[in-house]
Amino acid sequence: MGKKLQNYQLAVIVVWMLFTFWLWSTPYQENRMPYGEFDAISHWEVGDYMATTNKPILFLPDYISLRYGGDNAFKANTLWYHPPYHTNFAVLESVGGDRILPTYMMNTILSIAFVLILFFIMNDLFGFYAGIGTAILASFSPRDYMVYLWGQWPERISYAFVGLNLLIFYFYVNSYLEKREEKKYLLLLGIFLAVTMYLHPMGFFHSIAALGVFGILLLIKEKKLPFSFKTASFAAVIFLVLITIFPYQTGSVVVQLFTKGSESGTAAQANSPDYGRLFYWFKEPDRNVGVPSSYFSFSYMNGLWTLPFLIIGIIFCLMLRKRKHLMMLAWLISLYIVIHADVIGKGPFVHRSLSATAHIFIPLTVIGFYYLIMFSSKLKIKKFAMPTLVAIFLIFAIMFNAKTAVYGLKEGNTMVVSPLPLAYDGLARMNQAQYNAADWILKNVPPNENITDVGVLDLKRARWIAGVSQHINIPYAPETQFFPTRANMTNYVLVDYSDIKYVANQDTINYFLQWEAALMSKDQLAYNKDDIHIYKVNKAITDADLIIPQNETAK
Amino acid sequence: MKLSEYKKHGVIILTILAFSTILFGITGLKTIAAVLLFFELPFYIILRNWFNEDEAIFYSFFVGIGAYSAFVYHISFFTGIKTAIWTTFGLLVFFGIIIKRIHPNKNQGQTSQSQDSLKHEENLGQDQQPSDN
Q: Is residue B129 part of a domain?
């Protein structure tokens, strides 16, 4: 925020951020049904539970605890992340008056915040054009929008804070080293670090690594400590006070920090670190870590055209070594450290930190352009060189990065990077009929009752129905490949034809219908709408009382 | 804040609200209005006592998404979420006004010193010259 923006500059960045918001919100502009992987469900349902019950979560309700009850390493069955992130959703859901849209809008705002932060960093350090160039590339960063779509939502904004924390520290350091210390920046950093921890611990540890490396580089350059111990102590006190107001969640972070092979207990992997990985920027894991192979490709995620400029940017930073260049290098080095943390036993989800790559690669790429343009301005060919470089940037940014985000990236006939507007379309998300049925369950089924799902396509969809209905849902056919017996059934059974009619042949559907007619005919049909039936089960009737159809083809 | 600044920010806020209404209707409008009102405004009022206009606007949102909800979460144990939203808002705005009374902002309408030091780098050519930083 060092440079006050001119009105036209302000207008440009406002318009660009609105465009970015529009682009990133395309997945839910037409279809307002919730979507995302299991992580998305968990983040949405925590906020939604607080909003719909009008009370905070201290101990998890059963339908959330079933999966996440053990994720807080300090106190079981409590929130596994600090509450503010999800409370944000609860606030907006309460005020917005809708269970889905406010959460997704806020998530979009938080997930594109890194574009704005990068703009201000680059605008402050290298001028407006570097800022807007960075914002343009950042808006189309596939790794950022892929993870945003999947559902690792708190990480997105937490990683965005790495740059913000560095910038604040940079402001402070400048004032301190120029003997006019502005304590407010270091105190604000204490607050920001706590907020980063609230949002996600990985962003916090990345920030600490970045600040540490930046501090060391400054110490070497300036030959003196770049901050006041006294002011830093005040900032540390602010930070400690703020994180201790959430003892369970901070306790969980501390426990995991001192537990080798944390997060999912892959002790075997933690005990045999792959030191060879240190010689790669990031080596694609041999095992399946739940992300597509394209996620690990520099070419797909950044565009191979950016590589020369990225390298030039790094070289210029190494050559010039002013404080701002050291800050950029510290950011890059810290990213290398966090994506190799598994080597010292802190994994195994280091690939998640790879999603913060664009946050420093893009600025360094733009810095490469910036100094090439500066360099060319001193040449006789400047009339040609400068427009050529700007044209190269814009053409490639539009033809590769923007095109990938809007239309996807194909290799042959295979879509290797999906476009934002088509994310989770069609059967990839829960449908309106399922949402309505789940909402009916929420309002009509006692809270302690579980639901048996039959015909729900997959476990993820059953979890979305569980989230919306706020009841544990136990899926059988087709997810588990067999139908429940009467003994398997809970007191309520949901039979869902709303998706299966699009993916199964008529024989299979007929078998479903026969099964339902045979097993549920003596139960109370409590809900019957849009190809979804919900029965209140009469537990006095057993399989022996009924004639059950047999069909091996119905899977 | 000068009148022209009020106008400028007013235009930006109205543009954002209109945009969200066009995209997402009344729910979109209420959501974005709530973001500005709860996460931005109280901390802008507080931070304005120490930071210049642009800085206060920028930083307040990033403080708000952590601190506002931290207050709401704790207060809601006693009042419920809905009441806590407004209680927190009232308390923070009140706090900001009290601070303004006892700590008048010396940076009103000015750029802070540390950022003034950045201005020398605005000129592209200066990066080629030796510098003390």
A: no
